[in-house]
Structures are given as structure tokens and as C-alpha cells.
Amino acid sequence: MSRRGNSWDNAPMERFFGSLKSEWIPDTGYTSVEEAESDVLRYLTHHYNRVRLHSYNNYQTPVAMEESGARIDL
């Protein structure tokens, strides 16, 4: 952890949760915890990894990028 107020360490998770909230979670919320759990799991396993294009991956899905064997140099 960095010092208090330094948000760079948390930026990837903040970005992910921002995408989850804006792209997936309904405005009305969920009627039960079970419904929320299954819907968020569907977002992770299907939409985020197999449908959603990621600019970091040259606008490919994470699954397609991994299957292509391409590398991203940091």
C-alpha cells in the first residue's frame, strides 16, 4: 500500500468496478443477494472476458488475446 490519498495503486480495481457498475448492474438494483451474485458472475465469466473489447489488448477480448498468443510489452 502506498501513502494515504495515493490512488494509483487502486486504479485497476476502480476502473473494473466502474465498468461493472456503468455497463452491467441495473439501475433498479437486484431483488436478492443470490440474483446479484449470479449476475455479476455472468458479467465476469462471459461479458467481461469473452464479449467486452479491451483497449489494452488492442481492442480484443481477454480470451481472444490469450488464444492468439500475442504479448503486450509493458
Structure description:
This protein has helices at residues 11-23, 33-51, 62-68. The protein has 74 residues and is an all-alpha fold. The protein has one domain.
Show the helix and strand layout.
Layout (H helix, E strand, L loop, with lengths): L10 H13 L9 H19 L10 H7 L6
List keywords for this structure.
mainly alpha; 74 residues
**SSE-based structural type:** mainly alpha
Topology, number of strands: 0
Q: What form results from the Cα inertia axes?
A: flat
- The first-to-last residue Cα distance is 22 Å
Number of domains: 1
Fraction of residues in β-strands: under 5%
Largest sheet: none
Characterize the quaternary organization of these chains.
Answer: single chain
H/E element string?
A: HHH
| Overall pLDDT | 84
Count of helix runs: 3
Rounded to an integer, what's the Rg over CA atoms? 15 Å
The portion of residues assigned to helices is 40-55%
